[in-house]
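During the reporting period the student researcher (J.K.) took over the structure-prediction task from the postdoctoral fellow and processed the backlog of single-chain submissions. One of the processed entries is reproduced below for the supervisory committee.
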Amino acid sequence: MLWPIHAKTRSLLFRLLELMDIHSANQNRSLLEALSVVIEHRSARRNELDAQLDLSFASQR
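J.K. obtained the following C-alpha cells:
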C-alpha cells in the first residue's frame, strides 16, 4: 500500500506508528482500524490483505 518512494523508509514509518499515540478527533474510527490492520500485517509481503476495511476516510486519488 506504500508508494514506491516510501518503500525504503517502510520500517521507519512503522516505528513512528508504534511511537505515536494516535486518537480519533470524532466518532469515525475507520482510519484507526485500518492502521491496526496494516500494523498487524506489517511483515506480510503480499500485494493484498485478506481483510475488510472501511476506506471511506481516503480520497479517490
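The committee noted the following: The chain has a mean pLDDT of 85.
J.K. will present the remaining backlog at the next meeting.
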